[in-house]
Known about the structure:
This protein has one domain. It is built from five helices and no strands. Helix 4 packs parallel to helix 5. About 60% of the residues lie in helices and about 0% in strands. With about 110 residues, it is an all-alpha fold. The chain has helices spanning about 1-20, 25-40, 40-45, 65-85, 95-110. Pfam families: IFT57. Keywords: Cell projection, Cilium.
Amino acid sequence: xxxxxxxxxxxxxxLAERGPxxxxxxxxxxxxxxxxxxxxxxxxxxxxxxxxxxLSRHYFALPTNPGEQFFMFCTLAAWLISKAGHPFEQxxxxxxxxxxxxxxxxxxxxx
Length: 111
């Protein structure tokens, strides 16, 4: 209990040092990401192919369903890597998460 309180206090101090708007920075980043994905036609090219719903404005900013969010992230990462000209196999929903992330990172390092 004592350790957690100390962590929480340090976390709150960190937020105070960065300013009152820093708690909302992740929401701004997510909205920017969504705008960029829309410019790349992600709905038509990535989501429809996999029969997935479009992202909400704050999809990755709030932890709602980690498994679903991870799969969406992997789907988008694979699509973006392929769009950049590097053939990349679309991960499946029940693939080992560590292996998927390792493959994504390995492919990105090859850029």
